[in-house]
Specification:
Helices cover 27% and strands 31% of the residues. By secondary structure, the protein is an alpha+beta fold. The chain has one domain (2-115): 2-Layer Sandwich (GTP Cyclohydrolase I, domain 2), CATH 3.30.1130.10. A four-stranded antiparallel β-sheet has the order 1-2-3-4. The radius of gyration is 15 Å and the shape is elongated. The N and C termini lie close together (11 Å). The mean pLDDT is 92.
């Protein structure tokens, strides 16, 4: 089973350059969490799944902590998901930085990190 949260938007102060950390920017976070349910999903019980509202809350809290690299942000989100949902088999987090400072018009830059490393399905 895959639970996904895509397109979560945040205004945050991540960036390598001091002006990025001062002015802030828009970021978009996509999260995919894969696991094998240990209970019958037809029981209609959220305790038998991953709550995507909590995935949003995890991303929101990590986005509030300024970092130089979006790689660090994505890894922090993965680490917190692993902490709260130890039963998950795979996590993929993509962080997009909208309009990055690269000297030309660019829609976004992004980083994608997976746990465990190398597993891609989403």
């Amino acid at each position: 089973m895959i639970i996904a949260l895509h397109g979560a938007e945040f205004f945050a102060f991540h960036g390598f350059y001091p002006e990025e950390r001062k002015l802030g920017n828009c970021f978009i976070v996509d999260i995919d969490v894969e696991f094998i349910p240990t209970a019958n999903i037809s029981e209609d019980d959220l305790d038998n799944s991953v709550n995507y509202e909590q995935l949003y809350d995890i991303a929101c809290e990590e986005m509030k902590l300024p970092k130089k690299l979006i790689e660090t942000v994505a890894q922090a989100i993965i680490d917190e998901i692993k902490k709260q949902y130890a039963f998950v088999d795979r996590i993929q987090v993509r962080v997009k930085k909208m309009n990055p400072l690269v000297g030309a018009k660019t829609r976004y830059s992004s980083v994608t990190i997976q746990y465990p490393i190398g597993k891609t399905n989403a």
